């Protein structure tokens, strides 16, 4: 923690000090969601899904590789606890070869595991952060290899407003964040990073 000389305390407000220190250290972090808040948010999103999809007989859950699968795993396992005995089709989709920047940037493909048809299904796409919308657009194209769904919904943990390149909006949102383009939203998961946390950097 930064120490402030007593003679300066009457002349500086706390927000001003934060601004000064933030300028000196551009990598200063702000916590958007801590571990407890992440768990509460995942639980809320699952209850919203149950309200709209009931027994999931016509609905499937698809996590987007690579970062969205940590959230989709949580959503899937939480739904199983809330709906014991109910079968939920769950798959993971890689969109590497459907990206609009595939020929201009190096991307390492991930595994796609979808062992069921999406034909006439209600598909719930799951990703960690909705940013420009280009990842979602690529996912919509990639899904057609597995059938044509009747409905496609998008579930995200973080929705970054003011940065959309395409007219895509989430149907289920954990938290909406107003962040400028120079700021980064990082989602950390216990399975990969040692703890659950969402930070603005």
Automatic annotation (TrEMBL):
Organism superkingdom: Bacteria
A Pfam family the protein falls into: Pribosyltran
CDD domains per UniProt: PRTases_typeI (cd06223)
Gene Ontology molecular-function annotations: glycosyltransferase activity
Keywords of the record: Glycosyltransferase, Transferase
NCBIfam families, per database record: PRK05205.1-5
Protein name according to UniProt: Pyrimidine operon attenuation protein/uracil phosphoribosyltransferase
């Amino acid at each position: 923690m930064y120490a402030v000389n007593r003679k300066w305390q009457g002349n500086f407000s706390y927000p001003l000090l934060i601004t000064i220190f933030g300028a000196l250290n551009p990598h200063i972090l702000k916590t958007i969601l801590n571990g407890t808040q992440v768990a509460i948010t995942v639980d809320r999103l699952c209850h919203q899904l149950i309200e709209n999809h009931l027994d999931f007989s016509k609905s499937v859950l698809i996590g987007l590789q690579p970062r969205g699968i940590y959230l989709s795993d949580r959503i899937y396992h939480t739904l199983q606890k809330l709906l014991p005995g109910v079968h939920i089709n769950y798959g993971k989709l890689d969109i590497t070869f459907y990206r609009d920047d595939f020929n201009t940037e190096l991307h390492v493909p991930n595994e796609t595991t979808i062992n069921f048809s999406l034909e006439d299904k209600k598909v719930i796409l799951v990703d960690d952060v909705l940013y420009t919308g280009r990842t979602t657009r690529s996912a919509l194209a990639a899904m057609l290899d597995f059938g044509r769904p009747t409905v496609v919904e998008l579930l995200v943990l973080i929705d970054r407003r003011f940065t959309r390149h395409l007219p895509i909006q989430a149907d289920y949102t954990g938290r909406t964040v107003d962040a400028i383009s120079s700021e980064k939203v990082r989602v950390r998961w216990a399975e990969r990073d040692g703890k659950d946390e969402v930070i603005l950097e």
